[in-house]
Amino acid sequence: MQKLKLAIQKKGRLSDDSINLINECGISFPKSSGKLVTAAYDFPMEILFLRDDDIPDYVQDGVADIGIVGENVLVESGKNVDVVSQIGFGKCRLSLAVPRNITYNNLKELEGKAIATSYPKILQSYLEQHQVQADIHVISGSVEIAPSIGLADAICDIVSTGSTLLSNGLKEVETIFQSQAVLIKNQQLSAEKNEILNQLVFRMEAVRRAQKNKYILLNAPNASLEKIISLLPGINSPTVQALAKEGWSSVHSVITEKDFWEKIQQLKDAGAEGILVMPIEKLIY
Ligand code: ATP
Ligand code: ZN
Questions:
Q1: The architecture CATH gives domain 4-89+180-210
Q2: Do residues 9 and 69 touch, judged by C-beta distance below 8 A?
Q3: Which atom of ligand 1 approaches the CA of 15 most closely?
């Protein structure tokens, strides 16, 4: 039987989340022993540990069948692979930043200026789109120090909290790209490998859905049931069971994380008591 070869980042910001996701899909493999490739025990899959920048290339060439990589790295690589899905972690943005003491009103002010970045393609296409011409200096690491050493007037780099910018005397002025980790695949996967991929994607979706939803149990006086049920759409509709206590019911449902606290308040206001919220391990529709 063929094995699906999955490339993940060896060591870095996407490594732990990638490994956790695979494990939560019920797929286990030996703890990293510094090896480049390892086989899963319980799923027809091999895992390749690579530098993130190499992943699009390896997937395009079929050295790996699928991979987990940041959209920033994927788009910058310009490789031809298919995106299967966004997987929700590794969220960050690519932004332009200038020294804090400079007044900045709009992108036009970067006309003719030097911008240091490790993302020349994404930056170039953003500048073209906004009809600004600048001098792009490609540097591979520590982009944020470029203005203070006189190498550039501005930088374009990955930002998550902004603390690196702050400590280098920079301020973020434009967001040019929003990124998260994506699952990518080779464009010529065999039917057999596609079948394994479908099983993997099915499991990943169940895990992601579970992470976004919570199981909720509450007690409600029967007079409030109608109102409470209207607040809880559930997957189909909530389960309602009579309590031993006369005139009361127990309601079970699933709610999303998105408007979680708002929902809880509305339920309390509607008369719900003894609200119990629990994590869901897998959720399959
Ligand atoms: P490698 O050694 O594999 O080349 P790297 O140093 O290029 O690693 P990391 O810093 O580990 O890369 O970041 C990997 C990816 O994680 C980035 O390309 C981006 O998609 C995402 N990322 C970067 N910064 C953050 C952040 N602060 N929070 C979440 N995700 C981030
Ligand atoms: Zn890298």
A1: 3-Layer(aba) Sandwich (3.40)
A2: yes
A3: 11
Which phi and psi angles does 53 have, rounded to 5°?
-65, -25
**Which ligand is nearest the CA of 69, by number?**
1
Domain 92-179 has CATH 3.40.1500.10: no
Question: SS3 for 214?
Answer: strand
Pocket probe for ligand 1: among 8, 10, 14, the residue whose CB has the most ligand atoms within 8 Å is 14
- The pTM for the full model equals 0.89
pLDDT tens for residues 246-269? 999 999 999 988 778 999 999 999
The atom number, within ligand 1, closest to the CA of 72 reads 20
Ranked by mean pLDDT, the top range of 58-72, 135-149, 153-167 is: 58-72
Count CA atoms within 13 Å of residue 156 on its CB side. Answer: 30
CATH 3.30.360.10 correct for 213-279: no
pLDDT tens readout for residues 150-174? 999 999 999 988 898 999 999 999 9
> Is 12 strand, coil or helix?
coil
Q: Which ligand is nearest to the Cα of residue 8, counting in written order?
A: 1
